[in-house]
Amino acid sequence: MNPAEYSLADFFYSDTDDPTRPPPEFAAWREAGAWAMSLMEPALHGPAVPRVEIHRAGHDQKVINLSSYNYMGMAHHPEVVEAAKMALEKYGVGACGSPLLSGLSDLHRELEEKLAAFMGREAVMLYNSGFGAAMGALAGMLRKGDVAILDAKCHLCALDGAALSKAKRVFFDHNDPASLDDALTKSEGKRRLVVLEGVYSMDGDVADLPALMEVTRRHKASVFIDEAHSLLVYGKKGRGVAEHFNAENDIAVMFGTFSKSFAGVGGFVAAKKDLVDYLRYYSNPYGFSCALPPSVVAALLKVLEIFQRDDSLQKRLWENTEYFRSQLIGMGVNIGESTSQVVPIVIGADRLMLYQLCHEMNERGLFLAPVDYPSVPEGQLRFRSAVTAAHTRQDLDDALQIIEDTVVKRLKEQGA
Ligand SMILES: Cc1ncc(COP(=O)(O)O)c(C=O)c1O
Q: Looking at 229, 302, 359, 391, which residue is catalytic?
């Protein structure tokens, strides 16, 4: 078997007679492609900061990290770590219960209130996972007979939430107001919810809210936005792309994660109080799963405080982003439609080359994650880089040099 001829999309269905027995071809493929697979699931020996040691491709390696979503550089901020430590001492390890029954602490309530004020919304509810929050909020609102109208590039958490709800799922062409208009016209008379992302996670481009909101306003359709990658990054106050485009009044439900700019874990939904009160009882990943550990909540509160008092963080992130993107473009790298700190390095359809280059970069000391089909289209395999406020110019220059010596060199040799 030539593993490069197959992808994860080929092993979804199985001929076995028992669901606990995955397709044997999958194991054979994994074995044949062990060399590529060894790049996946790397283990960091320290925090997700710009220089870290990782165990990857069978050995330990010191690397420049362009893969972690530590956008504001908070993953190892001394005040954040101290806040978590103090809460760990006071509250212990786990919340030991679902938020509905016993899992909330005064810290959780404080974070709900502070985030609601920060987001300019009536209420906030916290989830122990970003994925669970988006999936659970959508499944908690949509019902059979409703129509979920999703941008074609929405994250799996939105797709899964809409599927779980049994609402009809309709996809409109990415960022295309005419296609959205068409979907809304065809679903006239139904309860509809339009689902968008602020920054699209695989491409790093931004929702065209001015054009899209004109359409949703005209159709009087409600909007759910996933600000996972845009929270703290976009908007003067850091509320995301909706704030950036002054479109917050057009959006009924804001969703964000704590795993990216907040450098923690978990997610939240910010909306009107009546909806949040309802979702607390009808969004199963909230009511039927343990609350966030208090030490994590304390860390998140500290990140919010630091972000609100230090306006240099967002500025530094954008300076780094603009520098990195302009250098890549200058080197002739295809960064697709990215306009944000999420910067794909698109190499095309050659799967073998994707993993070869990933190995080469890893050996040279650059930690970049490969993104393969079906996460991205077959002809647009890529590396996805995440620029942070914590990267120094030296970090970025060293990373750029490695990219030039590996990716750019190879693509030039191939005449691309
Ligand atoms: C756009 C988007 N939404 C939601 C999520 C899920 O967030 P989390 O990783 O915090 O569960 C992700 C994760 O990468 C994402 O990229």
A: 229
Pocket test for ligand 1, best of 127, 150, 157 (most atoms within 8 A of CB): 157
Active site residue 201: yes
**Distance (Å, rounded) from C-alpha 146 to C-alpha 143?**
6
From edge to edge, which strands make up the β-sheet containing 59-65?
A: 43-44, 51-56, 59-65, 366-367
Q: Are residues 255 and 361 in the same domain?
A: no
Confidence band for 302, pLDDT divided at 50, 70 and 90: very high
From 285, 309, 333, give the residue that closes a domain: 309
Residues 397 and 304 in one domain: no
pLDDT at 97: 98
User: Is the domain of 117 the same as that of 172?
Assistant: yes
Helix (H) or strand (E) holding 367: strand 366-367
Alpha helices in 221-336 (DSSP H): 241-244, 273-282, 284-287, 294-309, 312-330
Question: What CATH number does the domain containing 223 carry?
Answer: 3.40.640.10
CA of 199 to the centre of ligand 1 (A): 11
Catalytic residue among 67, 105, 201, 261: 201
Q: What φ, ψ does residue 125 adopt, rounded to 5°?
A: -125, 145
Supply the range of the domain harboring residue 290: 78-309
Total number of domains in the chain: 2
What local confidence, expressed as pLDDT, does residue 1 receive? Answer: 85
Residue nearest ligand 1's atom 6 by CA: 131
Ligand 1 mutation target, pool 201, 292, 376, most atoms within 8 A of CB: 201
Which tens digits make up the pLDDT trace of 369-395?
999 999 999 999 999 999 999 999 999
